[in-house]
Design a protein that fits this description.
With about 140 residues, the protein is mostly helical. It has four helices and no strands. The protein is flat, with a radius of gyration of 17 Å.
């Protein structure tokens, strides 16, 4: 049984990378189905949503890695200002991509929401795997 106090920075990184990999696999599996049922515009919206979700998970990984390195006594800390600037730049870019994709693609908004929700699903799945490892 794993203990929560033994959860290291590397464990966090591996968990986030597994969530990103799961997000990519589910997107690749769902993309042809959405294309077949709803059309190519909805498939592109699903891809846009999952890309936004994946970039959010990646930025969260970068932000938490920088914060944890600052909290560690002997860690080599990256400049937090640069990481925060990248985080807010990605946030602004996300708004632009959402606006442009909704304005010019005549697809299902539900496909876009599903793509964004895939990140939540992947992260929740990995969290449940951790809970199972800690309790069994």
């Amino acid at each position: 049984m794993l203990a929560l106090d033994g959860f290291s920075d590397d464990d966090f990184r591996r968990t986030m990378l597994r969530a990103l990999r799961l997000l990519a696999v589910v997107t690749v599996v769902a993309l042809p189905v959405v294309w077949w049922k709803l059309g190519w515009q909805s498939a592109v919206l699903l891809l846009v949503g999952s890309t936004i979700s994946g970039s959010g998970l990646w930025e969260w990984l970068r932000l938490m890695t920088a914060v944890m390195a600052r909290m560690d006594v002997g860690g080599e800390a990256r400049p937090l200002g640069l990481v925060l600037a990248g985080f807010f730049l990605r946030l602004g870019l996300t708004i632009v991509v959402l606006y442009v994709s909704l304005k010019f693609l005549d697809g299902s908004v539900y496909a876009l929401a599903a793509g964004i929700g895939l990140g939540v699903f992947a992260l929740s799945f990995e969290a449940l795997r951790l809970v199972k490892a800690w309790t069994v």
